Amino acid sequence: MPGCSLFGRWAVILLSLGLVLAQPALAAGDILIGQSVVKSGPMAANGILYSQGIALQIDAVNAQGGVHGRKIRLIVADDAYSPDKAIENTRRFIDDHRVMALFGYAGTGVAMATAPLAEQAGVPLIAPLTGATQVFDKGGKQLFVVRANYYDEMRKMVEHLTTLGTRSIAIAYQDDGFGRSGYKSAEDALAEFGLKPAAIGVITAGTYEADKAAADVAAANPAAIIMASAGKASVNFIRAYHATGRNAQFLGLSVVSSNQLLDELGNAADGIIITQIVPSPRTRTLQIVRDFHRDAAAAGNVEINHTTLEGYIAARVLVEALRRAGPEVSPAGIATALESMGNVNLGGFTVSFGPKKHAGSNYVDISMVRASGQFVQ
User: Fold this and answer.
1) In this predicted model, what pLDDT tens digit does every residue of 180-202 receive, in sequence order?
2) Domain shared by 199 and 324, yes or no
3) What is the C-alpha to C-alpha distance for residues 23 and 125, in angstroms, rounded to an integer?
4) Within this chain, do residues 45 and 74 fall inside the same structural domain, yes or no?
């Protein structure tokens, strides 16, 4: 699995279903960071890849002696995309491990469920893998998001389609917190261009059954379909839509799990448009992408894609915050350090935070999946 690199050169504590695996002892000066992330179940693809990119950057930093002479140690727990499990993991991180930060969580529901715990404890929650606007708006002062939000992505999709003259645009979304947030962002983006959804398809939460959603959308025969879905939900919807005999241009968010689309759909994934919130991992014109490739080559067994690069960039933001926080690191010091990061260039990718600005980037680009596994961006 792509996430197996997490068990590499740096000590990881994996808490899964309450079981603690054997691991090296932590050094007294280690900086402990807690990560609750989906690594099992139908939504695991993004969590595994995101974690792999995070591990790659942290491994590289630790190999150079860490930050202020201290190693960064992640305590990683599988929450299986369950907000309740993420809450349990987060309480353990805060109460038992006294972590300096919560980092690299994945999913809208998980972020919304755990942000109040971070707020109450005064521990920053950094770089959740979600672009839901309600997370940005209601996450509290301890939440720091690195990526652009879903509205930014949806607006890019609609702008692209209308530039090409496409105005018959439907929406398909998975019926959970993430999907409903994405649907609202898509609806708002269409409204900005004077449009309404040509049809709406609702993918069943949990099972991600998509036959009815596909039939509801196919009845309108739209030219394009914006998907607020990820993982198995996206795969199931595209398969079900193809089974209706209709054709449309599919567009997905950056969290659509593009590798899973390619693995499960094969040639049927060709031509799907995906918004990306980091630069192309194949274009080495940026220093951070060159660093990513260097560290990936040294580590081996690392998937080169947008999600692993996003994790790598997110971890670099964490490292920069730890450096700015100084040798006597504390949760409050990390939060203050993040708020001092105005227009920081991380090697060609710029983030900008502030006391009243906890969203670090609004970078969005368009890419197209090719059946060969390449992305045209």
Assistant:
1) 999 999 999 999 999 999 999 99
2) no
3) 25
4) yes
Helix, strand, or coil here: 103? strand
Which residue range forms the structural domain that includes residue 35?
Answer: 2-148+283-362
Query: What's the pTM?
Result: 0.89
Q: How far is 248 from 319, CA to CA, in rounded Å?
A: 43
**Per-residue tokens: 228:** 């607020």
What is each CA distance from 254 to 61, 128, 186, 318, in whole angstroms? 27, 14, 14, 21
Which CATH number belongs to the domain containing residue 253 in this structure? Answer: 3.40.50.2300
Nearest alpha-carbon partner for 80 in 23, 145, 15, 4? 15
Of the candidates 150, 95, 146, 149, the one whose C-alpha atom is nearest the C-alpha of residue 123 is 95
- pLDDT tens digit sequence for 103-152: 999 999 999 999 999 999 999 999 999 999 999 999 999 999 999 999 99
Query: Number of folded domains in the chain?
Result: 2
Q: Please work out, in degrees rounded to the nearest 5, the angle formed at the alpha carbon of residue 334 by the alpha carbons of 118 and 50.
A: 70
Cα–Cα distance list, 329 to 32, 68, 114, 174, 356 (Å): 10, 10, 22, 40, 22
